[in-house]
Amino acid sequence: MGSSSHRPTGSSAHGSAQVKRRRTSALSVSAAAVALLAATPLLTGCSTDARPGDAAVVGDRSISLASVQASVDAVRDAQREQPNADELISTTAGLTQQTVNSLVYMEVLEQAAADAGVEVTRRQVQEERANVVANIGGEEQLRQAALMPQGGVPLAGDDQIDATIRSQLLFQGLAQRIGADLDPNGQQLFIDELTRTANRVGVDINPRFGEWDAAQVMLVAADEPWLRSGEQVDDLPIVDPA
């Protein structure tokens, strides 16, 4: 890739690792998992192999532009229904890149867990969700909290919440399987595991969402001449209307 001017997309502003009890809040990809993702050079290079209809490709699994659009739209629609809609939306600027970042992480984690023989069943997800609901005070409280995560991507709807609970269980299971505690050495061990998986299966990002800068270890986006002054990628439709 030629050198170009880059700006952070905001996807690197992840929360620090915090685990206050064995069953962590599964409202977003856990703060611990997000911190590990932020510290992991999972994706490097020019990221030009993703097909036009894909936001990213992880191994043989594609993350379509349409699925990213649907996730972003679901969150924005749910946020607009809240009394503090303007605040919620303004504090989650860069949602599109954050969503791509999160979906890529989940795919890499799925593959790493499968390689290690870690499985999570639908029943386990349902049981963990019931635990979270009991701890937080109800399903409505869960949905409200999911729109205002600490150190993660906002979520809307059962599918997004359940997918994130599954990711959290995979994170816990994989960490236990490889003996990765939450001290710095354990975190590095987990990082190394994800890095090996990503390098083995290959990860490519649609240039529209930027690229992974190995030096900064974050998603960065080059200045795009097709954006009008003050306009961000997150403000624009991901999938062009037919």
UniProtKB/TrEMBL annotation:
Superkingdom: Bacteria
Record-linked Gene3D superfamilies: Porin chaperone SurA, peptide-binding domain (1.10.4030.10)
Compositionally biased tracts (Polar residues): 1-15
Region (Disordered): 1-22
SUPFAM superfamilies assigned: Triger factor/SurA peptide-binding domain-like
Protein name: Lipoprotein
Protein's organism: Streptomyces hainanensis
